[in-house]
Amino acid sequence: MIYLVLAIVSSACVSIFMRLSEHYIKSEMAMFLANYGICTVLAFIFMEYTLGETLSQGGAVILGLGLTTGALYLGGFMLLKYNMKHNGIVLSSTFMKLGVLIPTLMAVVIFGEMPEALQILGIILALAAIVVIQFEKESIKEGNKKLWLLLVLIGSGMADAMSNIYEQVGPPGGKDGFLLITFGTALLLTCAIMLIGKMQFGKADLLFGMLIGIPNYFSARFLLLALGSVDAVIAYPVYSVATLITITLVGLLCFHEKLSRKKAVALVMIVAALCLLNM
């Protein structure tokens, strides 16, 4: 459970640093370039320079899943940016959070993880809380591009699900190699996009990208380690809602954001859901 807690804290730090960067960065893509660069360096360090040995244990699986996950990481980010522009940040964030449905249902349907009755209730309550805490009146607009919202849900959910897929089919000793290939793929794809678009970057872009990259790497690493001891059907909903409540509390205490009645109700639902999921 300690790995899951560390994954939640790391994931929340990513959002906090991104919030702090809003008024300083000029190029989001450059910031993510630095982010994936740091993630790749950290993954290489934790590999202990044994990539060749790791790949020899299950190279095809590690390489295939790593390449796919890296593409999903960057693709999910691009889809989220597109949806924020055309559907608004609230509705887009809601569907991104609802992506937790995919790894949770995959754990039940494909990998046969069966939650208890109270845990099922906790999952339902957690998903309901995500909807309540994100939906606001302004999120319902005419002309929303429903297909793109569905794609961001699928993209975000599939990216999260890859950790559990690796846990089920990948070699136990190859987790660091999997992360190295994942972040290395995202880094190379980001470089290609910047080169093709001839994008510029500044010092602030690189600085905040590096700050985001450290917790971003560890959130992926700790989640992967947590799945070795906590069932995915429990880990994913807890990871999602606990990160959400942490970010909300930081927003209230540090950024002086106001808590609406809907969000207050949702926070109570989240606490109840976490209790049920851990019974």
Overview features:
0% strand; 11 helices; 279 residues; mainly alpha
Q: Helix and strand string, N-terminal first?
A: HHHHHHHHHHH
CA-based gyration radius: 18 Å
Shape: globular
Main sheet properties:
none
* Beta-strand content bin: under 5%
Could you tell me the mean pLDDT? 82
Count the DSSP helices. 11
Domain tally: 1
Report the uncertain regions.
138-143
Q: Give me the count of strands.
A: 0
What share of residues is helical? over 70%
End-to-end CA span: 13 Å
Structural class: mainly alpha
In short:
The protein is mostly helical. It has 11 helices and no strands.
Describe the protein's architecture and organization.
- The chain is an all-alpha fold.
- The chain has one domain (2-277).
- The chain has eleven helices and no strands.
- It has helices at residues 2-21, 28-46, 51-87, 89-97, 101-109, 117-134, 146-169, 175-197, 203-226, 232-253, 261-277.
- Mean pLDDT is 82; it is low at 138-143.
Describe how the helices and strands are arranged.
Layout: H1 2-21, H2 28-46, H3 51-87, H4 89-97, H5 101-109, H6 117-134, H7 146-169, H8 175-197, H9 203-226, H10 232-253, H11 261-277
